[in-house]
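Checklist before submission:
- one chain only
- standard amino acids only
- sequence pasted in full

Submission:
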Amino acid sequence: MDPGRQHSHLLTGTALDTTIRECFGETEPVLAALQGERINSSLVEIIQKRTEALQHLDDEMGSGDLLNTVSADVKLVANLLRNASYSEEIGQLLFRASAELCHLAGWLAFDSNRHAAAQSYWLAGLRAAHTAGNRALGVVSLARLCDQATWVGLPQDALQLAQAAQSRSKGVLSDRDGALLALFSAQAHARTGDLQSHAKALNQATELFDRGKTKVEGHAYWLDEAHVSCLVGRSFLVAGDPEQALRHLNLGLESYEGYPRDRAEYCSWLAVAYVRQRDAEQACATGDQAISLLSDQVSSLRTMSYLRDLRRELKPYQQEPCVREFTEQARELLGTGNTQES
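Returned file contents:
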């Protein structure tokens, strides 16, 4: 099955030529493949290396303008799968490369608050992974769909997706990927108010991470102890326990040395936890850190949404000087004309 089929607008003309040059440095071999010539493994390796490079650009910069670039790559690989000639082995590698690209495109769309596109890409990645015979990639797509369902307010769908992912994960996921799936599951349980299942999922996440923390493998290569602590804190925040959220988020941020977008996200969550503990001053100070990171270093509409959440949480304290100052700074960053503003 063609993972790019639902993306009806295929690359042509200048857009096709530009994408090929960006990916491969030259157009002739790829154009020949698009006309039915045979693909070799070196072409697939180039696609894989480019995908990894784009993943790390997103880590450092946020989704920003990367979605357009990756979307073009998805369409190009779809064209290759549709039109080129290749052996069964190369075909599996190419479908895997397509699944990886769709997974990245889904994440970038999710980070840009384009949820229909994100779901479409992750479902395409799921199908491509199945065709490639790569169960782990398929489970990772299900895990991301679970996280998205929780984020958009569909926790029952999230739990269904988590169950589907977990039933297919045995023996195929790295421990880090398994830990991330358990963290997504925990947050879905928190949304439904099932605190017993929430606690069980958090314990599973911790056990899996501890077992695999010395092995940097899988899609959750970025997951370390600081990330785990912050994600656990977020889960407690969703579960209505700001005291535990504060403890885990502060612990994670104390040792966090990772990417600025994630730090901005975690600072936003921590600030909300402070508000719910009636500490508006500390909430504003922590929110200011998120604003600084988002103003200077990264582009992420999803993370900016957390600042909107923080502004709503601070409304009961709007007469306090620190809250008025924070609100003004947030308004400058978010823009007063955005329909998502409150």
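Reviewer check: The chain has 16 helices and no strands.
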